[in-house]
Write a structure and sequence with these properties.
Elements: H1 9-59, E1 68-70, E2 74-76, E3 79-81, E4 84-87, E5 93-102, E6 105-106, E7 138-139, E8 150-158, E9 170-177
Length: 181
């Protein structure tokens, strides 16, 4: 018996082909995971641009932020808020937009009757309340005695993915009161 034992070239090639076929789906999973991670990073970057714009807006004095839609840098005496097209780290361009609206406020309250004979400012049990009123509690901008005291800031960031899909924009909203008067 003169048979040689060992592995033939055919067996090696067949094993290599089987291993390659088994590894292909694993490589596909890694590739898909990488694409999703990049997509998540673009969303995180959009959130960063929105938060940064909102933080800079909130630092500006109330009267330096005009009402209306802003699609380019907001230049104010106290600083600049970057708006419009902003280039991200992964060659993605983000469109940052600001919409500022007046936010009229009216509130009702029950004033204390200061003319009541039993009124003692030190003892709340002696306080008598008058009927509900809105006198002096309307700030709708209708005249100089009723100025707008609150503005609504809406910042949105949108972008287009590499495959042409436009995901839902990142949107932040807040109110800012005029505390300087």
């Amino acid at each position: 018996m003169n048979a040689k034992s060992g592995i033939t070239l055919t067996e090696i090639m067949l094993a290599t082909i089987l291993m390659a076929v088994a590894i292909l789906p694993i490589v596909g999973v890694f590739s898909q995971g990488h694409k999703m991670t990049q997509k998540d990073m673009r969303r995180i970057e959009a959130v960063h641009f929105a938060e940064s714009a909102m933080n800079k807006l909130l630092k500006l004095p109330f009267d330096q932020v005009p009402t209306g839609t802003q699609n380019s840098n907001l230049e104010a005496a106290s600083g600049t808020v970057p708006l419009g097209d902003i280039k991200g780290t992964s060659d993605t361009t983000y469109a940052v937009q600001l919409v500022v609206s007046n936010y009229p406020i009216t509130f009702a309250y029950h004033p204390v009757d200061l003319n009541d004979s039993g009124y003692d400012p030190e003892k709340s049990e002696t306080w008598k309340f008058l009927p509900e009123t809105t006198d002096g509690a309307v700030f709708d901008g209708s005249n100089k005695y009723r100025p707008i005291m609150v503005k609504q800031y809406d910042v949105s960031v949108s972008w287009t993915e590499s495959n042409g899909v436009k995901p839902a924009p990142i949107a932040l909203s807040t109110l800012k009161a005029n505390l300087e008067e």
